[in-house]
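Box S1 | Example of a co-folding query
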Amino acid sequence: MGKFKPVVIVGAGVLGLTTASVLQDKYPGIQITIVAADVPLVPPVAERERPSPDYASMWAGAHLRPTPGADRQLGDEHFLARRTAAVMKSLARSNPESGVQEVDGREVMEYLPEDKQRLKTGDSYVGADDQFRILEAHEIEAGGVWGCEYKTWIVNVHVYCRWLLTNFIRRGGNVVQRRLNSLDEAFDPSLFPSSPSSSPSSSWLVVNCSGRNFDTDEKTNVIRGQTVLVKNTYHKTATRHNKDDTWSFLIPRPLGGGTIVGGTKQHGDWGTEIRPQETAEILAAAAKYWPDFVSKVEDFEVVMVNVGRRPWREGGMRIEREELGKGRVVVHGYGAGARGYELSWGAAERIAGLVDAGVVSAKL
Ligand SMILES: Cc1cc2nc3c(=O)[nH]c(=O)nc-3n(C[C@H](O)[C@H](O)[C@H](O)COP(=O)(O)OP(=O)(O)OC[C@H]3O[C@@H](n4cnc5c(N)ncnc54)[C@H](O)[C@@H]3O)c2cc1C
Ligand SMILES: *[C@@H]1O[C@H](CO)[C@@H](O)[C@H](O)[C@H]1NC(C)=O
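Box S1 (continued) | Returned holo structure for flavin-adenine dinucleotide
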């Protein structure tokens, strides 16, 4: 046995995988088992392998849009997002095969909420050197009242999750693909057959990165998202916020992954079926707002229509240590909603911080 208490991470989404990476960095030799119903597939992910709509990490764009906000939750998320951006930008340079890439971001709004009014050209919101600037009135397309540009990052989610998984295994991590009926089953002795203890429940620590799927937390819900993956590749990430609170966006996927054309955000809508009407609206809006991408809807080469459910939680992510009795300790890290990639490294470092006391004090 190593000198640290073993850890079982439930979940192989971006949060479980990133947390595993942070723990392996912090505690060389630590024994970690990821238990997950769904694990990253080999990219490119094809229609016939369609991951579950509840495996949110497979359905994200994904990009970072800076959203510095005034309230406590947005403020805290902004802190985590800035930390994540620093890691992502450095990964884009050192490990482009991870699927992370630096890119220009542009947003146009048809209305001007208070939190945008406070933003200023020259301030940094993604991180240092993001070249953030508010657009001049004449630069904004018809119908828009406010806009901004900045340097940000995008990620090919399939390549990236697979890359994280491969690194985890290469560094000695263990993966068990299994659906658990409850989190308690993560304390099952069969997960660590070699465990020396007669009271298995306290011989390892469990990290709960299950998205929202166990549904025993009353604060969780879903935000349905339908998007369209097209083969065409746009050169930046762009978002248009409409007056009725719908939006359109383009998120290119690095390494030839095409572009995610989006998309819906439907709070509390549990429907997992593809809605053809939404597909048509999404593509029509994108053709209208970004004529420099396609000149007409028919120019889109559709690869796949996506439906995913974002693991939303009221008040934001739950990052917390909990004692479940009989020596069982769990550290939660779930409920990232629409921001799992944006917050991933900052959140994972915080989750790993709560794991500390449990793994280091262990006398094995
Ligand atoms: C359309 C769309 C667009 C998005 N765009 C962005 C974006 O641009 N930027 C961004 O940051 N985020 C985006 N997101 C959100 C992002 O995808 C999520 O926040 C993130 O993937 C959540 O990751 P997670 O690891 O918490 O959960 P998940 O990826 O859902 O992973 C959950 C893991 O837990 C496992 N699990 C669950 N239940 C069980 C069980 N009973 N037994 C065993 N294992 C279990 C699953 O198998 C899986 O491995 C988007 C989401 C959608 C749907
Ligand atoms: C673990 O995470 C899920 C979200 O997937 C949540 O509903 C649940 O309350 C958490 N804790 C336990 C003990 O299952």
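The CA atoms of residues 8 and 127 lie 33 Å apart. The chain has one domain: 7-360.
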